[in-house]
Write a structure and sequence with these properties.
The strands form two sheets. A six-stranded mixed sheet has the order 2-3-1-4-5-6, with helices on both faces. The protein has a three-stranded antiparallel sheet with strand order 7-8-9, with no helix packed on it. It is of the alpha/beta class. It has twelve helices and nine strands. It has three domains: 1-26 and 48-82, no CATH class; 96-368, Rossmann fold (3-Layer(aba) Sandwich), CATH 3.40.50; 414-471.
Length: 490
C-alpha cells in the first residue's frame, strides 16, 4: 500500500525536528524558553509497511540533510582528537634521544674526519685528537659524549673509539676488548631492567658500528672477516670502504662486489637498511632510498677542509694538486647516501633493532644460563647435605688423582730430561778427554822437536862464538903491523 503525500511530509518534519535538536545539543544552544504546557499523551500509531520507493525517497532526503545541514561532530571535539598526533610529537620532543656509535678500523683510515663530517661539527680537533693519534699497545676503548641539538630535538651522542685495533703483528685478541665492552653495556641495561620501580637512564648500548675497510682493491682480509663474524650478532654492522679516492671507478665496483661475496660466503649479517615499501612515502623518496641501499658497502672520501663556493655555500672538499672535489657528490663518494640512511631515515630503526633483536638474543642466552631453582624438586636437607658431602669427597679424590697423575708425569719428564742431560754430559766429557789426550800428545811432540831445535841452535851458537873469538884475535895481531907500516912511510 502506498503512503499519501501528507504522511511523507509528516515524516520529513520529524526528521528536521531531530536535526535541530542534534544541532542545538552539539552547538551548546539552549532551546527557546516556552511555558510548560500539559499535553495529552499521544497514542503511538501502529507502524505501517512501506514500499521500496517511499523508503528510498526518505533515505535520499536524510542523506541530503546530513551532508548539508547536520554537523556530524562538534568542532571542539574534532580539535581535541585531531591534535593527538601533535601531542605525541611534543611528548617525543621532550624526551632526550641517546645514540651510541662505535668506530672500528685500523689507524689512518680517516675515522675521525668522517665523524666530524657526519655530524657536521668539530668533534675531533687539535685539543681532542682522534684514535689515530692515541697510540697504545693493545686495543683500548675511549668514549666521547656529545650533546647535539637540532630543531629543539636533543640527541646525546656517544662515540666509542677503538685505538690500537689491527696495528700490531699479533691481532688474535684485538676484538676481545670490543666484545667485552658491548656485553658489559648489555649487562648494565639488563641490571637496570630487572630493578623494580626504576626507570631506565640513558641507553648506552651500542646501536651502530661503522667498520672501516682498507682500500686494497682485492677482497676482505682475514682480520676483517673474523671481526665482523664475531660482531654481527651483537650490533648493527655497517661496512665502509675508507679512502675511496685511491681506487678508480672500475676497481671500486669490483672491490664492492668481492666484499659482498665474502660477506655472503662467510655468513656475516650486516645491517640491512629497511626499504619501507609498505609505508606512505613519496615515490621519489622511495626510489632515492632504494638507490642509496644499493651502494652498500659505502665508499667514502673524507676531508676537514671547508670551501665557500660562488653562491656563498660552505662545502667540505678534498683538495688535490690538480683541483678539488665535493665529497658530498655521489659521483665520487657515497657519503651523502650513508649520512641520510643512518642519520635521517634509519636512526630510530637501529635503536629499535638493537633493543628487539640483539639485546633480546643476549638477554635470552643470559637468562637461560641461570638455573631455575623453582623447578628443582624439594629434598630433605640432611640427605642433601650427605649427597653434597659425598659429591665433595668424590670430587676431592678425583682432584687428588689428577694432581698425582700430573705430578708423576712432570716427575717422569724431569727424570727423563735429567737422564738426557747426564748422557750428554758424559758424552761431552769423553770428547773433552780425547781432545785433552790428543792435545797432550801434540804438546809432547812439539816439546821434543823444540828440544832438538834448541840443541842444534846451541851447537851452532858455540861454533859461532869460537869463530868470533878467532876473528877478534886475528884482528888484534894485524893492528900493530899496520901502525908500523904507517910510521915507516912518514
Amino acid at each position: 500500500m502506498f503512503y499519501q503525500k501528507e504522511d511523507l511530509e509528516d515524516e520529513l518534519q520529524d526528521v528536521t525536528s531531530l536535526k535541530n535538536k542534534f544541532n542545538d545539543h552539539f552547538n551548546h544552544k539552549l532551546p527557546n524558553p516556552t511555558p510548560p504546557t500539559k499535553e495529552k499523551p499521544k497514542i503511538p500509531e501502529k507502524p505501517r509497511p512501506r514500499d521500496v520507493k517511499t523508503r528510498n525517497a526518505i533515505n535520499d532526503q536524510l542523506s541530503k540533510s546530513k551532508s548539508s545541514d547536520v554537523p556530524l561532530v562538534d568542532s571542539e571535539i574534532k580539535e581535541t582528537y585531531s591534535n593527538l598526533v601533535n601531542r605525541i610529537k611534543d611528548k617525543i620532543k621532550s624526551k632526550n634521544f641517546t645514540f651510541t656509535m662505535m668506530i672500528v678500523g685500523e689507524s689512518g683510515l680517516g675515522k675521525s674526519t668522517l665523524i666530524n663530517q657526519l655530524f657536521n661539527c668539530e668533534i675531533y680537533d687539535q685539543n681532542n685528537p682522534g684514535p689515530s693519534f692515541k697510540p697504545c699497545k693493545t686495543t683500548r676503548i675511549d668514549i666521547n659524549k656529545i650533546h647535539l641539538v637540532e630543531n629543539q630535538v636533543n640527541l646525546y651522542l656517544n662515540l666509542v673509539d677503538t685505538p690500537g685495533f689491527g696495528v700490531h703483528l699479533d691481532n688474535t685478541n684485538c676484538c676481545v676488548e670490543i666484545m667485552d665492552f658491548i656485553e658489559k653495556k648489555f649487562d648494565e641495561y639488563l641490571i637496570e631492567e630487572t630493578k623494580f620501580g626504576q626507570a631506565h637512564n640513558r641507553d648506552y648500548r651500542v646501536h651502530c658500528c661503522l667498520y672501516f675497510i682498507q682500500p686494497t682493491g682485492h677482497s676482505l682480509k682475514q682480520l676483517d672477516i673474523e671481526f665482523m663474524k664475531k660482531l654481527c650478532n651483537k650490533v648493527n654492522l655497517v661496512p665502509i670502504i675508507a679512502k675511496a679516492d685511491t681506487l678508480t671507478q672500475d676497481e671500486l665496483h669490483q672491490f664492492k662486489k668481492h666484499i659482498l661475496e665474502d660477506i655472503k660466503k662467510n655468513e656475516i649479517d650486516i645491517y640491512d637498511f629497511p626499504d619501507y615499501q609498505d609505508l606512505n612515502f613519496e615515490k621519489d623518496e622511495i626510489t632515492e632510498r632504494d638507490f642509496y641501499r644499493s651502494l652498500v658497502p659505502f665508499a667514502i672520501i673524507s676531508s676537514n677542509q671547508v670551501e665557500v663556493d660562488t653562491n656563498g655555500i660552505r662545502k667540505r672538499v678534498r683538495k688535490y694538486p690538480w683541483g678539488s672535489i665535493d665529497i658530498e657528490n655521489l659521483e665520487y663518494s657515497d657519503f651523502i647516501a650513508m649520512k641520510k640512511l643512518i642519520i635521517k631515515y634509519h636512526l630510530l630503526d637501529m635503536i629499535e633493532r638493537t633493543n628487539i633483536v640483539h639485546y633480546e638474543k643476549y638477554r635470552l642466552t643470559k637468562l637461560d644460563s641461570i638455573e631455575d631453582l623453582s623447578t628443582k624438586p624439594k629434598r630433605n636437607p640432611l640427605s642433601q647435605m650427605e649427597e653434597e658431602k659425598k659429591e665433595y669427597e668424590e670430587r676431592m679424590v678425583k682432584m687428588r688423582q689428577d694432581m698425582e697423575e700430573v705430578f708423576n708425569s712432570k716427575v717422569s719428564k724431569k727424570v727423563k730430561r735429567l737422564d738426557e742431560i747426564k748422557s750428554e754430559l758424559k758424552k761431552r766429557e769423553t770428547e773433552m778427554d780425547e781432545q785433552l789426550i790428543e792435545m797432550n800428545a801434540n804438546l809432547k811432540q812439539k816439546r821434543e822437536q823444540f828440544e832438538k831445535e834448541k840443541e842444534a841452535f846451541e851447537f851452532v851458537k858455540k861454533e859461532m862464538d869460537v869463530l868470533i873469538i878467532a876473528n877478534q884475535e886475528n884482528i888484534k895481531e894485524n893492528e900493530p903491523k899496520k901502525k908500523e907500516k904507517k910510521k915507516g912511510l912518514f
